[in-house]
C-alpha cells in the first residue's frame, strides 16, 4: 500500500537519539522546554514530539525548535543533529509534502500560493498523503465518496488522522501569529468540518485515540472560533466556542473546557457582555483548578478582571489582577497547555492595559501597553501590531497625540503583513480621536497616511 511505502522512507534520526542518551523521551522533552525558556522561546515539546524526531518523521524542525536545539548543543549544526537542510525539505512541489512527513515551517516570506495551501498540507500525514487527505475531504479526489466534511465508509480512524487534526491546529496558530485572522478564517472552515465528521463517524480504533480526536477537534473549533473572533465575526465565533465547549463536556475534558471558557470570556468582553465575561472566566477557573497550571489560572483570572473592568467594578478588577500576578509569578510548568504559548509577560502587560483602559485610566493603560510592545518578540507580528494599536489608542486618550501618532505609524508598518479586523478597528478609533488634534506634531502625517491606507484597502 502507498502508506507503507511512504512510511518506509522515513529514516530514523540516530544522531538525535544519541544526544538524548539515557534520558527518557519525556525527560528530554522537559530539558527542551527548559532550554527554550532560557532563551525566551516557547515550545510545546513532549515525548511524542521527541519520538517523531527520532523516527525521522520530522526532517527539519521549525525555527523556534531550531534555536532551542542549537542553544542546547552549542557548536553543532542542524546537520550534526541529524536533520535535513530546510531548503531540501521545502524543495518539493508546491502543495505536496515531502514523503517522510508534513512538518514544514512557514516564515513571514511565504508566498500567497503556499499560504493558501497550508491547511490542506496540514492534513498530509506521515501515512499515505492521498488517503489521509481524502479521508478529510480535502480535494485530492482519489478515494471515491469522500466529499468535503465526509469520511469514507468502513475506514477506521487512527494515528494519521488524529495527528492531522492536531497539526492543523498548530498551523492555524502559527499563521495567525504571523499574519492575523482575516485571510485564514474561510480556509479553516473545511478542516473543522472534516474533524467533526471523523467524530460523527464513530470509527476510532482505541479509547486513547478517541480522546485525542475529541480534544483535537475541540481545539480546532476554538482556533477557528478565534479566527472568526479576531476578524469581527462575533456570532460565528460564539458558535465555534460553544461547539468546543460541548465537545469538552461530552469527552469529560477539563483542559478543553477551560480553554473554551477562556475564549468565550474574551469574546463576551469584546462584545460588551461583561457579566458573561466574568461568569465564563469563573467557570473556566473551576475547570482549570484540576490541571496544575498556574499560568492557565493567571490567564483566566485576567479574563475575569477584564469583565469586572467592563462592569466598572474597580475593586473586583484590582483583586483579580492581584491574583493573576500571584499565579503568573509561580512560573511556567510542564502542565501548561500547548495553546498558551502566546501567554508571557507581553500578554500579561497587554491584558492589564485593557483593564485600565476599560476603567478610563488612560495614562496607566498606556504604560502597560508600552511595556507590552517593548517585551514582545518581533517575530509575532500580529500580537506586536495589536499591542502597538492598544498603545496608540491609550496615548490618544491620555493627551499625548504626538506619541499616539508615532505608535499609529508602527501599526501601519506592521499591517502590511498582518490582516486583523480587530486591529484595524482599533486604529480607526484612534484616528477618530486624533482628528480634532490634527495640528499637533506628527498627527497630520499619521492621519493622511492612515486615510491613504484605507483607500487602498
From TrEMBL:
Q: Which InterPro entries match?
A: TPR-like_helical_dom_sf
Taxonomy, superkingdom: Bacteria
Q: What is this protein called?
A: Transcriptional regulator
Amino acid at each position: 500500500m502507498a502508506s507503507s511505502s511512504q512510511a518506509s522512507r522515513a529514516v530514523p534520526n540516530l544522531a538525535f537519539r544519541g544526544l538524548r542518551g539515557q534520558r527518557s523521551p519525556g525527560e528530554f522533552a522537559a530539558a527542551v522546554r527548559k532550554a527554550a525558556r532560557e532563551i525566551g522561546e516557547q515550545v510545546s515539546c513532549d515525548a511524542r514530539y521527541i519520538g517523531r524526531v527520532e523516527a525521522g518523521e520530522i526532517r527539519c524542525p521549525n525555527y523556534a525548535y531550531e534555536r532551542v536545539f542549537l542553544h542546547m548543543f552549542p557548536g553543532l549544526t542542524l546537520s550534526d543533529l541529524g536533520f535535513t537542510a530546510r531548503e531540501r525539505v521545502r524543495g518539493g512541489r508546491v502543495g505536496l509534502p515531502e514523503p517522510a512527513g508534513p512538518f514544514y515551517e512557514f516564515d513571514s516570506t511565504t508566498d500567497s500560493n503556499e499560504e493558501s495551501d497550508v491547511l490542506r498540507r496540514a492534513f498530509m500525514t506521515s501515512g499515505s498523503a492521498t488517503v489521509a487527505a481524502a479521508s478529510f475531504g480535502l480535494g485530492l479526489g482519489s478515494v471515491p465518496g469522500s466529499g468535503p466534511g465526509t469520511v469514507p465508509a468502513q475506514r477506521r480512524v487512527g494515528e494519521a488522522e488524529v495527528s492531522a487534526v492536531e497539526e492543523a491546529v498548530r498551523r492555524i496558530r502559527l499563521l495567525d501569529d504571523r499574519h492575523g485572522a482575516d485571510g485564514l478564517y474561510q480556509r479553516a472552515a473545511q478542516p473543522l468540518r472534516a474533524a467533526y465528521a471523523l467524530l460523527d463517524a464513530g470509527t476510532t480504533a482505541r479509547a486513547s485515540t478517541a480522546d485525542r480526536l475529541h480534544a483535537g477537534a475541540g481545539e480546532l473549533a476554538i482556533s477557528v472560533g478565534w479566527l472568526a473572533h479576531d476578524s469581527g465575526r462575533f456570532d460565528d465565533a460564539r458558535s465555534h466556542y460553544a461547539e468546543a465547549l460541548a465537545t469538552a463536556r461530552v469527552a469529560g475534558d477539563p483542559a478543553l473546557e477551560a480553554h473554551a471558557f477562556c475564549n468565550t470570556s474574551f469574546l463576551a468582553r469584546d462584545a460588551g457582555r461583561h457579566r458573561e465575561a466574568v461568569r465564563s472566566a469563573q467557570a473556566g477557573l473551576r475547570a482549570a483548578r484540576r490541571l496544575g497550571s498556574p499560568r492557565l489560572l493567571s490567564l483566566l483570572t485576567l479574563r475575569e478582571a477584564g469583565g469586572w473592568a467592563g462592569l466598572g467594578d474597580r475593586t473586583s478588577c484590582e483583586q483579580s489582577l492581584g491574583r493573576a500576578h500571584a499565579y503568573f509569578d509561580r512560573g511556567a510548568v510542564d502542565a501548561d497547555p500547548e495553546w498558551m504559548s502566546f501567554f508571557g509577560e507581553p500578554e500579561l502587560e497587554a491584558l492589564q492595559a485593557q483593564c485600565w483602559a476599560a476603567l478610563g485610566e488612560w495614562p496607566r493603560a498606556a504604560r502597560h501597553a508600552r511595556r507590552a510592545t517593548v517585551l514582545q518578540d518581533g517575530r509575532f507580528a500580529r500580537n506586536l501590531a495589536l499591542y502597538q494599536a492598544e498603545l496608540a489608542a491609550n496615548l490618544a486618550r491620555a493627551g499625548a497625540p504626538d506619541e499616539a501618532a508615532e505608535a499609529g505609524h508602527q501599526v501601519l508598518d506592521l499591517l502590511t503583513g498582518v490582516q486583523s479586523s480587530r486591529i484595524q478597528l482599533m486604529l480607526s478609533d484612534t484616528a477618530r480621536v486624533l482628528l480634532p488634534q490634527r495640528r499637533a506634531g506628527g498627527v497630520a502625517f499619521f492621519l493622511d497616511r492612515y486615510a491613504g491606507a484605507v483607500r487602498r484597502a
